[in-house]
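RESIDUES AND SHAPES:
===
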Amino acid sequence: MLDVSNVRVGYGAINVLWDVSLHVAPGKLTTLIGPTGAGKTTLLRAIMGLLPLTAGGINLRGKPLNGLPTWKMPDVSVAMIPEGRMTFKDMSVEENLTMGAFPKAHRAKLAVNLERSYAMFPRLGERRKQLAGSLSGGEAQMLAMARGLMADPQLLIIDEPSLGLSPLLVNELFDILIRLKQDGRTIVLVEQNTHRAVAVADHVYLMQSGKIIHSQAAADVNLDQLHDLYFAR
């Protein structure tokens, strides 16, 4: 579904990604792991059109994606759930979810998608009129996930969803990822918890210093060997 080919991206004169290539198969969960500063979030921002490419290309279903404005991503069925939740804190839970279906093409299914969100995240249904800024960290992450799903994207990009969550909430989060995968969603997951990420993934990419240094089917991954590469041991 998604092909990143020899991509270079940076911030001003500072280059961060060096000839990065990866393939995301349709209906599969691809996880991208690596230490802080490896370039994972930069790559996601480039895919979403938040950063321009200085070399290479990004294709979605065989058609160029790079150059498409970020606000047009829902039109090609792509959504991103950013690191840090980034909810609208002075708006209610339901208003936040409604913003996820803001593009005109998705407004007709607003009521259906709201009920689906509340079925998947019952706590959001209980707090639908509550301000997002008053939610706990776990509830805010649920809201960010649900908001990303409101446009019914075929490709869902998720950046560090378990960051700062309790072990119990992490378990709940990964159960939801499994359900989304079973529903046929194509998912790109950046995750700090390598054990959980590999366990839920179909394919694993490891990044270091702006480069992909390892690519392997998740079923074949040896975690000890992966951690040796991760920590450059």
Observations:
- The chain has eight helices and ten strands.
- The chain has a mean pLDDT of 92.
